[in-house]
Design a protein that fits this description.
Layout (H helix, E strand, L loop, with lengths): L4 E6 L5 H12 L3 E2 L1 H11 L3 H7 L8 H4 L17 H18 L3 E4 L3 H5 L5 E7 L2 H10 L8 H20 L11 E4 L5 H15 L2
Parallel strand pairs: 1-3, 1-4, 2-3, 4-5
Helix pairs in contact: 1-9, 2-5
Length: 205
């Protein structure tokens, strides 16, 4: 496949971002996460810190009825008519497509699998894990508050699920929406990387 893109959706604390970083390093292709925010800020004129705060925050929106017809060159509507959360989503979607146009890469989160699925070859990966293991990683590696950790992890997952349902009209944790679903609680992060790498190399032939 030409320009095969790996997208990684993940439960909070599952290690999906670390898997993506290692995978990109081993494959010798770019890894994109926070870079999308910077590109979206340039596209929209909104501050990068504002975009970080708006990510996965939803309002009732005009974009919900229009997004299925979105293209990177769409001029069917005026972005100024949209809510701020919709403007952020639209700017990030344009940034994701611009990065994918450059060639093979790994993109984490932000519904990249759905943004790219019509016009790009995509290997869609979902990383999950048992709640206890994810809470442990969130405290030890992310520095989250141990006292409220279960609430934090569950709330972030709920936000991601609502975001996906709102903009993609699909269930975020539904295995049918992905090519690979990996449980990092039973499969080590290193083996998760190996599995995705093998699938990528097979599809990219």
């Amino acid at each position: 496949m030409k320009n095969l893109i790996i997208t990684i959706s993940r439960q909070y604390g599952s290690g999906g971002r670390k898997i993506g970083q290692q995978l990109a390093e081993e494959l010798g292709i770019p890894f994109y996460d926070s870079e999308i925010i910077d590109l979206a800020a340039k596209e929209s004129g909104l501050a990068a810190d504002f975009i970080r705060g708006q990510e996965q925050q939803l309002t009732q929106s005009l974009l919900f009825s229009l997004v299925t017809n979105f293209t990177s060159n769409s001029s069917a509507f005026n972005p100024n008519m949209l809510s701020l959360s919709d403007q952020v989503y639209l700017a990030q979607a344009k940034a994701i497509r611009a990065l994918a146009d450059k060639g093979p890469c790994v993109i984490v989160g932000r519904c990249a699998d759905w943004v790219l699925e019509k016009d790009y070859d995509v290997l869609r990966v979902f990383v999950c894990g048992p709640l206890e293991a994810r809470c442990k990683r969130a405290v030890e590696e992310y520095g989250d508050n141990a006292e409220d950790i279960q609430k934090i992890v569950k709330n972030i997952d709920k936000q991601r699920a609502r975001y996906c349902q709102h903009y993609c009209d699909k269930a975020w944790e539904d295995a049918e929406n992905y090519d690979l679903c990996l449980n990092s609680g039973t499969i080590s992060l290193e083996n998760c990387v190996s599995i995705v790498k093998s699938a990528y190399q097979e599809l990219a032939k």
